[in-house]
Write a structure and sequence with these properties.
With 468 residues, the protein is an alpha/beta fold. The chain is built from 20 helices and 5 strands. The chain folds into 2 domains: 23-263, Rossmann fold, CATH 3.40.50; 269-467, no CATH class. Strands 2-3-4-1-5 form a 5-stranded parallel beta sheet, sandwiched between helices. Residues 128-133 and 464-468 have low confidence and may be disordered.
Length: 468
Amino acid sequence: MIKPPEIVVPSEDPFENDELSRKETIEKLTSFLEHLSEPFVLGLNSPWGTGKTTFVRLWDQHLKNSGFNTLNFNAWETDFSEDPFLALVEELRAEISTLMEDDPSRGKDISKKLKKSSIAIAKKGVPIALRVLTSGLLNIDEKSEDQISELVSEIAKERVDEYSRRKNSIGGFKKTLKDLVSVLSKGEGSEKPLVIFIDELDRCRPPYAISLLEHAKHLFSVPGIVFVISVDRTQLSNSICAVYGERFDADGYLRRFIDLDFVLPDPPGKDFVHHLFETMGIFDLLDQRNHHKADQEKKELYDLLNLILPPLGLSLRTQIHIFSRIKIVMMTTQEGHRIFSKELALLTVLREWNQPLFEEFISGTVDPKEIIDVLENASGGSIFLNRPGWFLEGYILAMGAEVGRISPLIQTYKNRTKDGSADQFHSREKRAVDVYNQIRKMEETGTFLRATASRIAFSDRFLNHRNS
């Protein structure tokens, strides 16, 4: 597997395989839903790649275990449909047999009514322009005033009749939904709402996403039904502006449909890094390497990625891309050869996080101190607070020297360590000693920036092909 497998969500314990500590958040959100009785739309807002789909799967199973009835609707998987309303109704109808397994005959009756009323709602009349065309009214000279008046009156009457029909159909549809909620509540012996999850809405075609939102809000607005819409609000806003224009107030528009937004908390970084080492088989690949520095490289790779990734706050998806690239590099490097773990960890993170800076670094067109400054600023200074971070600083400066970019910072650190007793003073001098000693050590053993950059460039062929 180049990417991690979807986690298994056991029905008896949904959080058994959860590596991101989402249980507490889900339990609090469940308590919130228990207090809802009126129609409600909750937005789960989080950027693309932060694990919203997994969060929804865990919460869905937890709700089921807590006595809720739920429906999980993946909007992206139904994007091929021309009518999202009918797609949503059909998914609900397919779930009714499960939701109402204790009363199958009643379930079939409700399902039949939902189908009939939804088709009536979705059915559209013949466009006026087409009616005019097929009636020959475009040739005005050949038609009498009475004929024109008669056809226009007929069309107007049909439009009024269509409005009445659709209004009645919507009323019938909502009544059937109320019947469904009533039966489900009695079956559970509680007043817990029916929860309908809509996931991956931000990946859909803009018109499809907008239509689905509007139908969910207006046609499913029934007491006892709660929608939970998992979405990257920024991306969805961009989709709306793509339809209505760049200056359209997309945020105000969304507030008409989403009653409250909940922002998913940031995932704990080190837990996820360890999870990726295990689920993507990085530990296994490292154990298979049979050179004399294999154990050392395993420790270096693990420690460096745990040092760099959590403070940067990268999305889960970006971290997955980093590990995918590392795995490809390892799979395409012969087992008897070193993977150059220090260079691999740093350069792979740079490549996925800040490609322009990565290109400047490996070409020697940027002072390595700029790499250090960018990492320090992005992490709030936490990466370089202690000795592991100081060693990393030494790696960066030494790698820069390999491509001919010797930073003046090296001389600064050298000057601070001349008397050999700087480690007795405050942290600035201790940092200088550790950084400079690491630089000297790497000068003796050599750095492998060029070799690692070449391997990463080869991995681009796989990743570019996959993403095309």
